[in-house]
């Protein structure tokens, strides 16, 4: 994407002792003190997107203009028209993260559904207010904001998730807005704050925004088909068509402007709907229908008329007094020494230390984990259930030839189960992807803090489930009855779960669809399972395929479990022969049938496994190295996707 943007914010605020923006206070006509609003100016905004079309051999790259030479000045309570290019406006603005300019896409939630309204706002205050701000002041700000947003009655109610019922849609929107207002920004960008709300709730949200704007905060927003009671709240209106400006000026004057250029709004028609009809060409289609007296219009004629009206609207505005006034105002702003141009830097500053962020993010992550039964209780229950099933199937294995097969089957199932059970980790980054990108851009925390919190919380869950699974399945099957063997078994099972989880994170970190990530992980685990050492005799594998075994997590886990279990076991019958002349002496002989494997060491040699002490720990080291590599890949992917997905 190509972006050539220049955004100015009039520097009329002072920086307080705590590092936060403090707007200057002026005196109103009635003598009362009023907070002065900020002026945001847009200079020559250009936004292009590179699109690919065609097949691989004939692929073409086309450049599509989304925004074309936009110039505007916004102050107080402003609105941007619903437009396909509007998301690009907010996308380009994310490159200018700033402590006095906050951007919020209200189409997605930026709150944690398992937490209460107060807990979400407290989280924002803890990470976004400077560390020098006392905790008492942070709490007071949270309480004041709850009261200002009208959330007092639901302050201690959970926001709600897809699984649990929470607060209403309007209260959720106000909580989203409150997350940004915690730092008292001078400029607030809102992308469709009324999406998903009924008319009454949408009206209450807009009245709240209007009240905040009247206290000196500049609010720039997009909105989808507002009703008249909402439209009349706007101070400034900006209309775009095809990425080009067709109107920018006072909202009350918009109807008069369009009437003067030949587009009069009918009585009792909603101005917002009228503007959309005009810029989309529907107004022309209606007018032509009335002229021709027929609804059967030629498609080419209609398309041509829409194209011509778009060009006319752009030309009319370019030659209007509103456009000339905007250009003059922009020239004045550029010359004004008080005006500062924001750098085109993506550097994000933080108001708290790494460990302060880690404490709060880790606490929220663990709290979200515990309050999500589908990720905690369900996983624990499934693991206990599978342990009971496996234990019942292989209950009480014997030290004979059948015991070899049963042990191999049990250990293979345990290893593969540990791998496939980690598929749930794919949702760690995918479900919270938009929340993470928003919070990172807004300066809540570092990428490393978020990543480490997710890793630690998931490791805790995998540890608990692996330990419980091991305790149940080990003694039901009747594996080697020594304390050392049991703890090595538990360590191996847990290490396999860790490594498989790390691989799942590495695969899913840059994915946006859970189903696709699950498919990729399933295919990967199936190939790993084939080269685990049970389905295929690895020493007999062809050289051009043998290298695949080194990438198999189940292979290392299964090899370690086999060494731990089979070393020292005997699988042939022992017969006691008593010497008739020496009754006090006995000799034990092992009776071996042709084709039988009598010792665990013999079986391990047949499989090509080094069963020495180093051979056991070598597999543990290999799992640890793979886990570290996968975690590094996952972290690098996470740092990449945060670059404005």
From TrEMBL:
<keyword id="KW-1133">Transmembrane helix</keyword>
<dbReference type="InterPro" id="IPR027417">
    <property type="entry name" value="P-loop_NTPase"/>
</dbReference>
<dbReference type="InterPro" id="IPR003439">
    <property type="entry name" value="ABC_transporter-like_ATP-bd"/>
</dbReference>
<keyword id="KW-0472">Membrane</keyword>
<keyword id="KW-0496">Mitochondrion</keyword>
<dbReference type="InterPro" id="IPR050352">
    <property type="entry name" value="ABCG_transporters"/>
</dbReference>
<keyword id="KW-0812">Transmembrane</keyword>
<dbReference type="GO" id="GO:0032217">
    <property type="term" value="F:riboflavin transmembrane transporter activity"/>
</dbReference>
<protein>
    <recommendedName>
        <fullName>ABC-type xenobiotic transporter</fullName>
        <ecNumber>7.6.2.2</ecNumber>
    </recommendedName>
</protein>
<feature type="transmembrane region" description="Helical">
    <location>
        <begin position="459"/>
        <end position="479"/>
    </location>
</feature>
<keyword id="KW-1003">Cell membrane</keyword>
<dbReference type="GO" id="GO:0008559">
    <property type="term" value="F:ABC-type xenobiotic transporter activity"/>
</dbReference>
<feature type="transmembrane region" description="Helical">
    <location>
        <begin position="485"/>
        <end position="506"/>
    </location>
</feature>
<feature type="transmembrane region" description="Helical">
    <location>
        <begin position="377"/>
        <end position="397"/>
    </location>
</feature>
<keyword id="KW-0597">Phosphoprotein</keyword>
<dbReference type="InterPro" id="IPR013525">
    <property type="entry name" value="ABC2_TM"/>
</dbReference>
<dbReference type="GO" id="GO:0005524">
    <property type="term" value="F:ATP binding"/>
</dbReference>
<keyword id="KW-0813">Transport</keyword>
<dbReference type="GO" id="GO:0016887">
    <property type="term" value="F:ATP hydrolysis activity"/>
</dbReference>
<keyword id="KW-1015">Disulfide bond</keyword>
<dbReference type="GO" id="GO:0031966">
    <property type="term" value="C:mitochondrial membrane"/>
</dbReference>
<keyword id="KW-0325">Glycoprotein</keyword>
<keyword id="KW-0445">Lipid transport</keyword>
<feature type="domain" description="ABC transporter">
    <location>
        <begin position="17"/>
        <end position="267"/>
    </location>
</feature>
<keyword id="KW-1278">Translocase</keyword>
<dbReference type="Pfam" id="PF00005">
    <property type="entry name" value="ABC_tran"/>
</dbReference>
<dbReference type="Pfam" id="PF19055">
    <property type="entry name" value="ABC2_membrane_7"/>
</dbReference>
<dbReference type="InterPro" id="IPR043926">
    <property type="entry name" value="ABCG_dom"/>
</dbReference>
<dbReference type="GO" id="GO:0006869">
    <property type="term" value="P:lipid transport"/>
</dbReference>
<comment type="similarity">
    <text>Belongs to the ABC transporter superfamily. ABCG family. Eye pigment precursor importer (TC 3.A.1.204) subfamily.</text>
</comment>
<dbReference type="GO" id="GO:0015562">
    <property type="term" value="F:efflux transmembrane transporter activity"/>
</dbReference>
<dbReference type="Pfam" id="PF01061">
    <property type="entry name" value="ABC2_membrane"/>
</dbReference>
<feature type="transmembrane region" description="Helical">
    <location>
        <begin position="620"/>
        <end position="638"/>
    </location>
</feature>
<dbReference type="GO" id="GO:0016324">
    <property type="term" value="C:apical plasma membrane"/>
</dbReference>
<feature type="transmembrane region" description="Helical">
    <location>
        <begin position="513"/>
        <end position="536"/>
    </location>
</feature>
């Amino acid at each position: 994407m190509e972006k050539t943007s220049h955004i100015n914010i009039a520097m009329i605020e002072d920086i307080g002792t705590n590092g936060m923006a403090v707007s200057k206070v002026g005196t109103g006509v009635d003598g009362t003190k009023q907070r002065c609003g900020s002026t945001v100016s847009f200079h020559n905004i250009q936004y292009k997107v590179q699109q690919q079309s065609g097949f691989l051999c004939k692929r073409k790259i086309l450049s599509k203009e989304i925004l074309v030479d936009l110039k505007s000045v916004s102050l107080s309570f402003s609105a941007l028209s619903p437009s396909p290019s509007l998301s690009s406006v907010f996308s380009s603005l994310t490159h200018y993260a700033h402590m006095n300019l906050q951007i919020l896409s209200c189409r997605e939630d930026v709150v944690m559904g398992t937490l209460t309204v107060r807990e979400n706002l407290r989280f924002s205050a803890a990470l976004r207010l400077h560390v020098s701000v006392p905790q008492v002041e942070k709490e007071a700000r949270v309480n004041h904001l709850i009261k200002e947003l009208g959330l007092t009655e639901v302050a201690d109610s959970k926001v709600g998730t897809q699984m649990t019922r929470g607060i209403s849609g309007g209260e959720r929107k106000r909580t989203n807005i409150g997350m940004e207002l915690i730092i008292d920004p001078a400029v607030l960008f809102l992308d469709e704050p009324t999406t998903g709300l009924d008319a009454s709730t949408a009206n209450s949200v807009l009245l709240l925004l209007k009240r905040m704007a009247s206290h000196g905060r500049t609010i720039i927003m997009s909105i989808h088909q507002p009703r008249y009671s909402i439209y009349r709240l706007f101070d400034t209106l900006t209309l775009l068509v095809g990425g080009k400006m067709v109107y920018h000026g006072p909202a009350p004057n918009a109807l008069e402007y369009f009437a003067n250029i030949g587009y009069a709004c009918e009585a009792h028609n909603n101005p917002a709907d009228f503007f959309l009809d005009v810029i989309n060409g529907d107004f022309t289609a209606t007018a032509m229908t009335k002229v021709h007296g027929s609804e059967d219009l030629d498609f080419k004629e209609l398309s041509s008329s829409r194209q011509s009206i778009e060009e006319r609207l752009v030309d009319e505005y370019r030659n209007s007094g509103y456009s000339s006034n905007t250009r003059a105002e922009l020239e004045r702003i550029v010359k004004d020494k008080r005006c500062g141009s924001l750098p085109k830097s993506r550097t994000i500053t933080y108001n708290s230390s790494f460990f302060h962020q880690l404490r709060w993010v880790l606490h929220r992550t663990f709290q979200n984990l515990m309050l999500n039964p589908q990720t905690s209780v369900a996983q624990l229950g499934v693991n206990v259930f599978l342990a009971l099933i496996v234990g019942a199937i292989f209950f009480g294995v014997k030290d004979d030839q059948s015991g070899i097969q049963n042990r191999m089957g049990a250990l293979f199932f345990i290893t593969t189960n540990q791998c496939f059970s980690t598929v749930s980790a794919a949702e760690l980054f995918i479900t919270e992807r938009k929340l993470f990108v928003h919070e990172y851009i807004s300066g809540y925390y570092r990428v490393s803090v978020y990543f480490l919190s997710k890793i630690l919380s998931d490791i805790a869950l995998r540890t608990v489930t692996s330990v419980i699974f091991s305790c149940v399945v080990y003694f039901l099957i009747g594996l080697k009855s020594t304390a050392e063997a049991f703890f090595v078994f538990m360590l191996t099972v847990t290490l396999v779960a860790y490594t498989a989880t790390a691989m799942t994170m590495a695969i899913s970190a840059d994915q946006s669809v859970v189903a696709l990530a699950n498919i990729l992980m399933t295919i990967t685990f199936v190939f790993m399972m084939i080269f685990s050492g049970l389905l295929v005799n690895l020493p007999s594998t062809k050289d051009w395929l043998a290298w695949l075994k080194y990438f198999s997590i189940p292979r290392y886990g299964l090899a370690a479990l086999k060494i731990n279990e089979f070393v020292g076991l005997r699988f042939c019958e022992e017969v006691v022969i008593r010497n008739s002349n020496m009754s006090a002496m006995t000799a034990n002989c092992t009776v071996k049938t042709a084709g039988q494997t009598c010792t665990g060491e013999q079986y391990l040699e047949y499989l090509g496994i080094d069963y020495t002490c180093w051979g056991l720990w070598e597999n543990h080291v290999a799992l640890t190295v793979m886990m570290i590599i996968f975690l590094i890949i996952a972290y690098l992917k996470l740092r990449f996707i945060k670059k404005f997905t």
